[in-house]
Write a structure and sequence with these properties.
- The complex is a heterotrimer of chains A (351), B (249) and C (71).
- With 351 residues, chain A is of the alpha/beta class.
- Chain A folds into 2 domains: 4-203 and 230-237, Rossmann fold (3-Layer(aba) Sandwich); 244-350, 3-Layer(aba) Sandwich (Rossmann fold).
- In chain A, 39% of the residues lie in helices and 20% in strands.
- In chain A, helix 11 (313-320) links the parallel strand 14 (302-307) and strand 15.
- The termini of chain A are far apart.
- By secondary structure, chain B is α/β, with parallel strands linked by helices.
- Chain B has a single domain (23-242), classed as 3-Layer(aba) Sandwich (Rossmann fold).
- Chain B has 10 helices and 8 strands.
- Chain B has helices at residues 23-37, 72-82, 94-100, 102-110, 151-154, 160-165, 181-199, 214-217, 221-235, 244-248; strands at 2-5, 44-48, 64-66, 87-93, 116-121, 170-177, 204-210, 239-243.
- Chain B has a 7-stranded mixed β-sheet with strand order 3-2-4-5-7-6-8, with helices on both faces.
- Helix content of chain C is 14%, strand content 18%.
- Chain C has helices spanning 16-20, 52-56, and strands at 3-6, 26-27, 41-42, 62-66.
- A two-stranded antiparallel sheet of chain C has the order 1-4. In chain C, strands 2-3 form a two-stranded antiparallel ribbon.
- Classes of the chains: A alpha/beta (351), B alpha/beta (249), C alpha+beta (71).
- Chains A and B meet through helix 3, helix 5 and strand 9 of A and strand 2, strand 3, helix 2 and helix 4 of B.
- Strand 1 (2-5) of chain B pairs antiparallel with strand 4 of chain C.
Chain lengths: 351, 249, 71
């Protein structure tokens, strides 16, 4: 690990990405993600010895496709965006997953729909986790809840993208992006030699040509192509489930939350415990694959799912639990975040 | 015995999916000849578009990237920026480049990306079955312009080579065609110039090629060739539009 | 003599080689290939091996040789 600093989420995350060997950033400014491209642009000028390249794209559509091209060469590259910008990137998300391109995308959630607001929200769970592009594909989605975790998952994202030849989405929100926290920055990692990256376009000297193609050639061939992709997703689903459990041993009521609102729930859980209510918490870190295993064998427990949305992750929770009647939802909309006391009131309704 | 013309080495044995008489085939062959002549196979990455040429990766025995519709210049930007040592060719048709991907090609030119763009202008959407393109001529029939393209609905044909010529980031822009052996030779010279500009690290090179689409135009291949010369080239004049590399020499 | 070899099954019968041969060495054929086209037939008599036919062919059907030994 590197040095301990007090740093903003977006900036710490960008620094982590650079230290993970991601020297290429293609992006379009959009609040609340703009500190990431700004950070890259600054490092390109102030630390020329690190060979960082930043391109401000004309649109998110272009930025995502630039990332696709750059990552197809076996180099590490990324973009960061928010809400409507992520919408524009969806065609490339579908493409990159189909084309086995190991890319990393940061999506800082802000409240929609439409242009919306620039505060914290979790209403882009569906577009990140279920996929907003066409066809049957999956993004590996990681949801940190602190600046420290943002830094760590940022670095891991590049390894996972390469391991599975698939896009990885780091799903944060405006609160995590803008908050400043004490963080121990990860150390520098050497990016892999592009020639060792699967199917990388490095020029075909001494090997068979590599082709990055997502174009069907008849239903039989295309079914085979899809089945091969499904094998990839099954492998990710089997190996990359991540979540954290809190006070589960004796819990009667289990809070379920990810991202910034999980911090609120953590405080609410403590308040409830002080009042003698046995509350635990499950915090999904991988949103896809969803940690179904964390919800198994908990019949009779009451689940309170708290989101900054009208109820998106709660659908996955209902699929994961033994009895969906055990699941209650509490959501806040429009960029508002509940206080721990407000969540405590919701907990008390279940007692 | 001396071979005057042989199949270029970089070509595979695959038969193209193009219709008989399609200009894509003639241009594709010139690209292959130049890849051989300039020894680009092992260090090149070909970026293909969506359109009739989207399966081109299988015709060339070298690395390839099939981009999404209109996004070839963005993907090529990512590739060339990640690895500037590679020769990157960005090949696009008129639906791809002028319609869906107008922003991407304009901004690649604005940034003066150091790759070569080949633009096939056949004034129609070929792959999807003869719909109107932004380059369709006024009055020209298309399945989405059944009485011919009309200004009131669709405005005017777009002259990309001239637009590219106005961009400071473009070092070379020329419009050529492939309607007879002389024009094919001129087309090859223009492509070679565009390839060499990239090898020399100069700005974006843009070669627009007026190309016959016999199926989309509902003409015989020979009639389509005549139509390029007699009608299409009147709207889109052939010739060099810009070459800043000349001034440097 | 000169020679134009025709890769029979690649041909899509566009007619460019026939049209652009300056010496009239290629003409419409009457045998169908496996893709349903009628490739041209070649008569070497006046061929100057200029290569125009091959350069115009969109499908790399033709190979052109100059000064072939007659056996």
């Amino acid at each position: 690990m590197g040095e301990k600093v007090f740093m903003q989420g977006n900036q710490a995350m960008a620094e982590s990405a650079i230290r993970a060997g991601c020297k290429l950033f293609f992006g379009y400014p959009i609040t609340p993600s703009s500190e990431v491209p700004e950070y890259y642009a600054n490092v390109m000028e102030t630390r020329p010895e690190e060979g960082v390249m930043f391109i401000q794209a004309e649109t998110e559509v272009a930025a995502f496709n630039m990332v696709a091209g750059a990552c197809a060469t076996g180099h590490r590259a990324m973009t960061a965006t928010a809400g409507p910008g992520f919408d524009l990137g969806q065609e490339a998300m579908s493409y990159m997953s189909a084309a086995d391109i190991p890319s990393v995308v940061v999506e800082v959630q802000r409240p929609g729909p439409g242009d919306g607001e620039i505060l914290a929200a979790q209403g882009d769970y569906f577009s990140a986790v279920k996929g907003g592009g066409h066809g049957d594909y999956c993004n590996l989605v990681l949801a940190p809840y602190s600046v420290q975790e943002m830094c760590e998952l940022m670095q891991e994202a590049f390894d996972l993208a390469q391991k599975y030849s698939n896009p990885v989405v780091l799903l944060t929100d405006a609160t995590l992006a803008k908050m400043r926290e004490s963080v121990e920055l990860p150390g520098y990692k050497e990016a892999p030699d592009p020639k060792t990256v699967r199917n990388a376009l490095t020029g075909c000297k001494g090997r068979e040509p590599h082709k990055v193609v997502t174009c069907g050639d008849g239903a039989v061939q295309w079914e085979e192509f899809n089945l091969r992709l499904q094998e990839k997703y099954a492998k990710i689903a089997a190996n990359e489930v991540r979540y954290q459990e809190y006070n589960m041993e004796d819990a009667d009521i289990i809070l379920v939350a990810y991202g910034s609102v999980a911090r609120v729930c953590e405080s609410a859980m403590k308040l409830a415990r002080e009042e003698g209510i046995k509350v635990g918490m499950i915090r999904p870190i991988s949103l896809w694959p969803f940690p179904n295993v964390a919800f198994e064998g908990k019949k009779g427990k009451k689940f309170l799912v708290v989101e900054l949305s009208a109820g998106q992750m709660v659908q996955d929770v209902k699929l994961a639990v033994d009895d969906k009647k055990d699941v209650t939802f509490f959501g806040k909309l429009g960029g508002t975040t509940p206080s721990p006391k407000v969540v405590l009131e919701q907990i008390k309704k279940l007692v | 015995m001396k071979a005057i013309y042989e199949k270029p080495q970089v070509f595979t044995d695959a038969i193209t999916t193009y219709c008989g008489g399609c200009g894509h085939g003639i241009v594709g062959k010139l690209i292959a000849e130049l890849i051989d002549e300039l020894d680009l196979r092992e260090n090149g990455i070909l970026v293909w578009p969506i359109g009739c040429s989207c399966l081109s990766d299988r015709y060339y025995d070298m690395d390839a990237f099939m981009a999404l519709h209109g996004r070839a210049p963005a993907a090529a930007t990512g590739i060339k920026r990640a690895d500037p040592s590679k020769f990157v060719l960005c090949y696009q048709g008129d639906g791809d480049l002028v319609s869906e991907g107008m922003a991407e090609i304009m901004h690649a030119a604005i940034r003066s990306e150091k790759f070569t763009v080949i633009f096939i202008n056949n004034a129609i959407y070929g792959m999807t079955g003869g719909q109107m393109a932004p380059t369709t001529l006024e009055g020209q029939y298309a399945t989405t312009a059944p009485k011919g393209r009309k200004e009131i609905n669709s405005g005017f044909p777009v002259h990309m080579a001239e637009i590219m010529g106005m961009m400071p980031g473009v070092c070379y822009s020329e419009r050529v065609t492939v309607t007879n052996p002389g024009n094919v030779a001129k087309c090859k010279r223009a492509l070679k110039k565009g390839f060499e500009n990239q090898i020399a690290g100069k700005g974006l090179s843009f070669i627009e090629i007026l190309s016959p689409c016999p199926t989309g135009w509902k003409m015989s291949p020979l009639k389509a060739m005549e139509w390029v010369d007699e009608v299409v080239a009147k709207e889109y004049p052939l010739g060099l539009i810009k070459d800043t590399t000349k001034e440097e020499n | 003599m000169n020679l134009v070899k025709i890769n029979f099954d690649r041909c899509k019968e566009c007619g460019y080689c026939i049209k652009f041969c300056p010496k009239g060495c290629l003409s419409k054929g009457d045998k169908i290939n496996k893709r349903g086209y009628y490739p041209p037939v070649y008569d070497a008599t006046n061929c100057i091996a200029c290569g125009s036919c091959a350069r115009m062919c969109p499908d790399t059907v033709l190979t052109v040789y100059k000064d072939v030994d007659v056996q």
